[in-house]
Design a protein that fits this description.
The chain is of the alpha/beta class. Its EC number is 2.4.1.-.
C-alpha cells in the first residue's frame, strides 16, 4: 500500500508533493491551481433586500397571529387621519399658510373653441403658479372656469369668484390666506414670498382709507368705522376702481359673512343691471355703505400685486403708478382679450422674467 501524501491543490500549503522514495515535486507559486477561492460576497442591495423581506415576513406573521390587534390599529389610523371625532389622537400633514386660486379653462373654451395661443397662455400661467407655490410651500388649486355655465340661467357668469372662494375655503379648512389670481397674470419675482413681500408687515404695507387714492370718488369717511380691526381682505385700485384680478382674503368669521352677503342673490337681483363690472361693483357698493366691511379692507398699491402692461388704463397712460416696471411682483394683463394680444404679452413677460433672473454664468 502506497504511503504517498498529497497537499490539497486549493489550500494555503506549500504545494509540495512528497512520496516515500524521497522525490519531491514543487508546484510553481504562479500555478492557477495554487489559489484560494472564497465565496462571492453579496452587495449591500441584496443584504438590504433580504432584511426587508425578513421584516415583511415578520409583519405578515404578526398580522395573521393577532387579527384583532391589527384591526384595532388600522381602525385607529383611519379615524386619526380621515375623521375629526373626539378622544382620538389626530395626525395630519400641515396645511399651507397660503393657497393660490387660479382661474383657468383646462377643459376647453367656455363659449367657443380655444385657439393654440389660448392653450399656450394657459399652460404658461399654470406652470408659473405651480413653480411659485412649490418654491414657497404654498397650496395651489386650479379652478376650471367652464363652471360659468352653472350660472348662465341667471346671467351670473361673472360672479364666480365669490362662489369659488367659498368652495376653496371649504376645501382647505386650515389655511389662513387665499390668493386669487386671474389667468392672465404672471408672477415676475418668484423668489419673493408673500410673507416677505407684505404679509409680515401688513399694517405698514397697506393703507386703510381712501384719502390717498380714490379713483371712484367714494365717500372717504362713514360713521362707526374702527380701523384698529385686523385686515382680512387685501385688494388694489386701478384707474377704474377696485381690481379683483389679484386679491387676498384671510379666513375669519368676517370673511365668511362678507362672502355670504356678496353672493346673496337678493342683492344681485336688485342691482345686477346697474353693475357693469359685476362682483367688483357689488364690493364697491358694500364698501361705500357698510362700516363693518370697510374697517377690515386694506389696499396695496396697484404695482405691488397687480401691475398693468401698456394698453391697460389707456386713458391714464402717463400715470406711472399703474404700469409695470422691472422687478414689480406681478403683472396683470387685464383686458388683453379686448383688442390686445394676450399671447404676445404673456410671452414677452415670460422672457423678461427669465432675463431679469438669469445668472451671469448661464449662457442659455
Amino acid at each position: 500500500m502506497s504511503n504517498q501524501r498529497f497537499s490539497l491543490p486549493y489550500s494555503k500549503g506549500d504545494g509540495d508533493l512528497e512520496n516515500t522514495s524521497g522525490n519531491t515535486h514543487n508546484y510553481d507559486g504562479d500555478d492557477d491551481n495554487n489559489k484560494t477561492f472564497k465565496p462571492r460576497q453579496k452587495n449591500a442591495f441584496y443584504r438590504i433586500s433580504g432584511t426587508l423581506s425578513g421584516f415583511e415576513a415578520r409583519i405578515t406573521n404578526f398580522c395573521i397571529a393577532h387579527k384583532k390587534i391589527t384591526l384595532a390599529l388600522v381602525t385607529l389610523v383611519f379615524l386619526s387621519f380621515f375623521t375629526s371625532i373626539p378622544f382620538v389622537p389626530h395626525w395630519s400633514v400641515s396645511s399651507p399658510k397660503v393657497v393660490i386660486i387660479l382661474a383657468a379653462n383646462e377643459g376647453g373654451g367656455v363659449l367657443k373653441w380655444k385657439s393654440p395661443q389660448e392653450w399656450s397662455v394657459e399652460r404658461s400661467s399654470i406652470a408659473n403658479k405651480k413653480n411659485y407655490a412649490k418654491t414657497h410651500g404654498y397650496g395651489l388649486t386650479i379652478k376650471d372656469m367652464t363652471i360659468k355655465k352653472r350660472y348662465s340661467h341667471e346671467w351670473r357668469e361673472s360672479w364666480e369668484k365669490v362662489d369659488i372662494m367659498k368652495q376653496t375655503m371649504r376645501q382647505f379648512p386650515d389655511t389662513e390666506w387665499f390668493w386669487w389670481l386671474d389667468l392672465h397674470t404672471y408672477i415676475m419675482e418668484p423668489q419673493i414670498s408673500l410673507e416677505e413681500h407684505f404679509l409680515n408687515n401688513l399694517e405698514n404695507a397697506t393703507y386703510r382709507t381712501l384719502e390717498k387714492f380714490n379713483p371712484l370718488g367714494l365717500a372717504t369717511d362713514i360713521p362707526y368705522v374702527d380701523y384698529t380691526q385686523p385686515i382680512d381682505m387685501i385688494i388694489t385700485q386701478d384707474c377704474g376702481g377696485f381690481n379683483l384680478g389679484s386679491f387676498l382674503m384671510r379666513r375669519s368669521s368676517w370673511t365668511e359673512m362678507l362672502l355670504d352677503i356678496w353672493w346673496d342673490p337678493a342683492m344681485y337681483e336688485e342691482m345686477h343691471m346697474q353693475w357693469e363690472h359685476k362682483e367688483q361693483d357689488a364690493l364697491e357698493t358694500l364698501y361705500s355703505s357698510q362700516a363693518w366691511i370697510r374697517e377690515r379692507v386694506g389696499f396695496l398699491p396697484l404695482r405691488s400685486i397687480n401691475a398693468f402692461p401698456p394698453g391697460a388704463c389707456s386713458d391714464q397712460a402717463n400715470d406711472p403708478q399703474f404700469f409695470f416696471k422691472d422687478h414689480d411682483f406681478v403683472i396683470n394683463m387685464a383686458g388683453c382679450e379686448w383688442g390686445r394680444d394676450c399671447w404676445g404679452e404673456m410671452e414677452h413677460y415670460k422672457a423678461l422674467s427669465k432675463k431679469l433672473h438669469n445668472r451671469w454664468w448661464k449662457f442659455w
